[in-house]
Amino acid sequence: MTSTDFAGSRRTVAVIGAGSWGTALAISLASAGHEVRLWARRPELAEEIERTRRNRFYLRDARLPDGIRATSRDAEAVDGADVWVMAVPSQSQRAVAEAFAVQSAGVKLVVSVAKGIENETLSLSTRVLEEALPAVDPTRIGVLYGPSHAEEVAQGLPAAVVAAAASRDTAKAIQQLFMTRSLRVYANTDVIGVQIAGSAKNVMAIAAGISDGVGYGDNAKAALVTRGIAEMRRLGRAMGASMSTFSGLAGIGDLVVTCMSGLSRNRYVGQQIGEGRVLQEVEDDMQMVAEGVRTTASVVALARKYNIEMPICESVYAILFEGQKPQEAVNALMSRAAKEEDWLDEIDEESD
Fold it and tell me: What 3-state DSSP class applies to 270?
């Protein structure tokens, strides 16, 4: 199978996960003419989606096209589907993939759209899926990341994302599958960098929300976003990513939209904490998962493993899990030793 097999061809796609992003992608794929099976963990949710053609829990304003069939039955969801889109939260992805593994022998393409890093193993999504789906050719596993609020994609509003895989042919196959008139897809073979950028930016979004909740201004948020990119690049370099990836859609693009938009769940969590609420209370009130909360622990663990400085991420971790007050964290960040801005040094190191 080559990427050209996906150009203009009608596929049967299993979207595993009926949250907001899985539902939005199912709508986009069905609107492009693909047959879509949307798997929901809860039978009552699948039944309601089938009956009403709406997902009122996660994407209430969008109507699902007739080309989508919702089900909670594993076998029914993947029957005849040679493309799987894994749209469950990153911390659940391994268990869900393992449950489907027995039916994965004929799968030609697996695409993860979960933006997170597994806590227990510190593995990126592609590694998790390689281990959980041993019958699938690992070169046929990739990701779709980038600045893309589910609500806007479901409405068909213009967006651009990046398809990434270690294999260029796989990245292009993902590109061909998801490209529509309103969803522009770029291909990238830096699958490590794309996943680090797309996952770590959620931690920065929590930080941006905390800043908003405390009442700091635009100056603080601009500094946070800019230095956040520096931290993301630092981690990416340690893990073998290309620095240019962090200037692209999965890096600056996704970071900007997630830190600035009222649609961002991660920014919302941070804002609520900045206003004085505790994490457990905020999460209990949310129907959807904010990936950045658990990813914060993974990113900090990776920073310590590779012995690199990620002070913003460390501060978010201290606020979320160690009870530090937001104002204390900001004071600690602002009182760090004076440094030189290191963008040019990082670029020079990459070109050596």
Answer: helix
Poorest-pLDDT segment among 114-123, 151-160, 219-228, 243-252: 219-228
pLDDT tens-digit readout, 227-238: 999 999 999 999
Q: Write the DSSP string, 93-134.
A: HHHHHHHHGGG-TT--EEEE------TTT---HHHHHHHH-T
Q: What would the two tokens of residue 92 be? A: 């659940």
What is the value of pTM for the model shown? Answer: 0.93
| Residues with catalytic roles | 201
Final residue of a structural domain among 189, 219, 237: 189
Q: How far apart are CA 204 and CA 209, in angstroms?
A: 9
Same domain, 12 and 130: yes
- Give start and end residues of each alpha helix (H) in the chain: 20-31, 43-52, 74-78, 93-100, 125-132, 150-154, 168-178, 191-214, 218-238, 254-260, 265-274, 279-285, 291-305, 311-321, 326-334, 343-351
Q: In one letter, which amino acid is 208?
A: A
SS3 228: helix
Q: Do 313 and 179 reside in the same domain of the chain?
A: no
Q: Which domain holds residue 78?
A: 3-189
Q: Determine contact, residues 70/43, Cβ cutoff 8 Å.
A: no
The total of structural domains in the chain comes to 2
29, two tokens: 């794929």
One domain, residues 135 and 223: no
DSSP summary character for residue 338: P
- Per the structure block, which two tokens stand in for 294? 């658990």
H/E run at residue 60: strand 59-63
d(CA 299, CA 296): 5
What single-letter DSSP state applies at residue 135? T
Q: Nearest 5°: CA angle at 35, between 32 and 36?
A: 100
The 10s digit of each residue's pLDDT in 259-283 is 998 889 999 999 999 999 988 888 8
Among residues 189, 214, 232, which one ends one of the domains?
A: 189
Total Cβ atoms within 10 A of residue 1 = 13
